[in-house]
User: Fold Cytidylate kinase from Tanticharoenia sakaeratensis NBRC 103193.
Amino acid sequence: PGVLIVAVDGPAAAGKGTLAKNLASSLGLPHLDTGLLYRATARRMLDAGLSPEQDDGAAEAAALRPEDLARPDLRVPEIDRGASAVARQPGVRAALLERQRAFAQAAGGVLDGRDIGTVVFPDATVKLFVTASPRTRAERRLRQLHGDAAGADEALLEQTAQELAARDAQDAARAVSPLRKADDAVVLETDRLDADAVLARALEIVRERE
Ligand code: C5P
Assistant:
């Protein structure tokens, strides 16, 4: 048998990152947050005075250096939108594809993103598709960014839910590698589950398939 590869896909702020990190440490595997690759590419374009919408210079920006991924300013609204824009470009996706495959080829890994189970590792050992309602996802995103009080602010919740929905719609509608559940992925609906419960359920699924 080959190495153990776990694909974790789903819409924005559904809890993919937390689950992937916890799964990787439970299984002793490396973890790759693939969204960070798109975020760092968008950051480089903006820093170079380029629009993340344009394809001129985009594939070059996707040739990321280690320091591009270590930047502290990759989780801001401007980069949420910029990452989703660069992610539509075939040249960017092609440039990042090999890097993602190389990451897990030798020793396996847990990768979270939008197209891991459909495109990056269509033969992954386990494919999980993590979802939650728009309301839950908006609450989680606000708590993560601004603390518990922000998760109770109705106006902010409404605005955040709209931003997440716009990004999901763009990610699902694009021509290349759209956000989509792989046919053989297991759906993990996390509205009523905390991080530990999601991890426990995911570990059961991994054990059934490895
Ligand atoms: O996961 P995260 O929210 O950090 O991803 C940022 C953006 O990067 C997503 O909205 C999506 O457009 C893009 N992305 C992608 N494919 C992946 C991971 C992220 O297109 N595998």
